[in-house]
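Look over this one:
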Amino acid sequence: MDGTVAQRTSDAETARYAKGFESLDHEHEVRIDSLPFSGRLPSWLEGSLIRTGPARFEAGERSYEHWFDGQAMLHRFGFGSGAVSYASRFLETRAFAATEKGEVGLSEFATDPCRTLFGRAMAMFSPQFSDNCNVNLVQLGERFIAMTETPIPMQFDPETLAAAGVAFEPPGMLTTAHPHLDRASGGLLNYATQLGPRNSYRFFLLEPDSEAPRAIASLPVKRPAYMHSFGLTERYLVLAEFPFTVNPLRLASGREPFIRNFRWEPERGTRVTLIERDGGEAHPPLTTDPFFSFHHVNAYEQDDDVVIDMSAYADAGLIDDLYLDRLRSGGGIARSELRRVRVRPGDGSISSERLLDTDLELPRINYGRCSERPYRYVWGVGVGESGWFERIVRADLESRSSTEWVESGCSPGEPVFIARPGGEAEDDGVLLSVVLDAETARSFLLVLDARDLGELARAEAPHHIPFGFHGQFSRG
């Protein structure tokens, strides 16, 4: 696996993507009804792409430490009548309110408030979790929910983008911003890590009309692992515990920001546990080589095997690559590999292989059709010569081949797949990606044909949009 950090770049190359880590303070609460755009939009593309991501990287005179710490802003691109509209708004949370006063009010991923010794001691008894939901968002019935890895998901109005309070309370202190869809109920499946005298991973289901999640499984753990996502098949919840773990007492001490309490322990290997969705019984865990991953791509059952695909790294060094001072100075980031882990519950064996020669991160699939099932295509972004994301990648896992979209000076974000209504092929649809153009210092929304990455249209945003993480498309 190529887990090395890309070579440090020159100042000129750094400028190609440094704008993406510059704060955006301007909001467009009043919608821009029609952005300038070229090309032609598919007639069937109607709805909204809503994205969340960090947009403010300072609180007063203090800078946040990490890309993951920036204050969340919602961006909505609307499609209809052959036009593209745009609106944006900061997610109005307690964490954001503190930045309006020039303060870091709550503990973020890698940035802590300036606490007195007494304040740190009190944090042990009353931890102040951040509500800065800058990672992902989901639609649950009529509700729209922004999420991060702390247990405070925020509901918001999809039209005004105004925050509407805490959406629900997960059964734990740490969770993921990548829930799965439960096809039977239309609800959300996720898990939360409960810390205390007896630590555990607690899986839960939140149904569309429910205000409170229902527990469906629990797994005890001594040293919880940092996991950004998990896998799901028709029969199993799939938990991959990477050897990046924490002593819960370190977290409770409040001496360091959240992520700095975790330690890379490769001797533990990566432990994969299958948990029955019906009944919650956990199979004995199986251990494979140590590696790290933020994103599961997909998982499914094939005969008696369980196939689990992830964007993987040799270790957790990518987290260090994403500190803002490193990114802004052109340090570059590690390249991932698309790794397939195969678990054979029958004989208790586990193996893994690399699927592609190229790297692929921020993966998206035709989720409604292929989640939990065998699939062929995945789309994502790849690192270029600058050390940052410069390519949109389309991977064909059947032929083990890939094609790319590249444009000089451009840094694309996550390509969100939208299936054409009534389309029969898995890749019949479009990709939507927010791209930063270094030459104009502005962003644009790119519309590609998902089958061959041919450009269909692009809409020019009124300014740069800082690099974000994830978004979802709503046809409503």
